[in-house]
C-alpha cells in the first residue's frame, strides 16, 4: 500500500511517499481503506522529534492519528464490510493513518452517517474530540456561560466556537481580522483581532477559556477569567508555563491530552449530519503532498482543517 513514512526525525525532507506493508489485523480491529486523513500540528511536531515522538519505538514511522474510510475487513468486530467510518485512534501511540490501509481499534471509531461527506470526515475526529473534551469534560461548560476561544479560526478553535454555541454559551474569540467574518458565521459574538486589540475589557468576565495557542498568549488571557473560571490549555509544549502563571495568579489552568472516544464521535457525527456542526476544510492535498500540508500547518495560520486525500492506488 502507499503511505507516507519517515525513517528518522527531521524536517519536511524526511517525509517519503513509498510502499509499506499493509497492517495485520489484531482481535478487536477493523481494516479500513482510507479515504482521507486529517493533518494536525501534532503530526509535524512528532516527525520533527517533538510532540508524541517519545512513543515511537521503531522506524519507519507512518504519521497520522485521524482518518475516514470504508471497512474492507471487519475482523471479529460488529462492523460490516462497506461501512463508512471515521476516528482518531491510538493517540498518542503510533497509529499510521497516512496510509491507504489502517488497522483501527473498533472501540475507538464511529459509523459515519450517509449525510456526512467522507473526505471532510477525515479531518473531523481529533479537533472535534479535543474541542468537546476541553469544553465539557475539562471545562464543565454550561448554558449561559461566557467562553473565550484563543485561536478561534483554527482546527480546534472553529469547532470549539460552534460546540460552545450549540451548548448555549456566549462566545468571544481571537483571530486575525480577515477571519472575523468566518468567526461570525460560526456564531462567535465577539471577535477580537489579537494583532491590534487587547483583552483588557474582558477582565474577570470568562467562565472558560479554551487556549489553542499556549505560551504568552494563554498567560496574557488569564486575567479574563472569573475567580472560579478555568483555562484549558492545549499545546503541551507550553502547558507547564501556563499552569505556573495560573498558580501565581490564583487562576485555575487545566492541561488536556485528547483521548479517543467512539461515544463522543457518535454525538459529533450526529451534530454534523444535523448541520449543527460544520468542519471547514482549509485545503486538501493528495497524500504524496503531505510535505506541503505540513509546511502550511507550520505557518500557524490555517483556517479550519487541512486534509490529505487518497486516490485508491495500491
Ligand atoms: N493537547 C491536545 O490533546 C491537543 C489536541 C489538539 C491540538 N492541540 C494543540 O493545540 C494547538 C491548536 O491546534 P489546531 O489544530 O487548532 O491548530 P491550527 O489549526 O494550526 O491553528 C491555527 C490557528 O491559530 C491561530 N493563531 C495563531 N497565533 C495566534 C495568536 N497569537 N492568537 C490567536 N490565534 C492565533 C490562527 O489564527 P489567524 O490565522 O486568524 O491568525 C489560526 O487560525 C496546537 O498547538 C496543537 O498541537 C493539542
From TrEMBL:
Positions of the Enoyl reductase (ER) domain: 10-308
Alphabetized InterPro entries for the sequence: ADH-like_N, Chloroplast_QOR, ER, GroES-like_sf, NAD(P)-bd_dom_sf, Quin_OxRdtase/zeta-crystal_CS
Pfam families: ADH_N (PF08240), ADH_zinc_N_2 (PF13602)
SUPFAM superfamilies: GroES-like, NAD(P)-binding Rossmann-fold domains
Protein name according to UniProt: NADP-dependent oxidoreductase
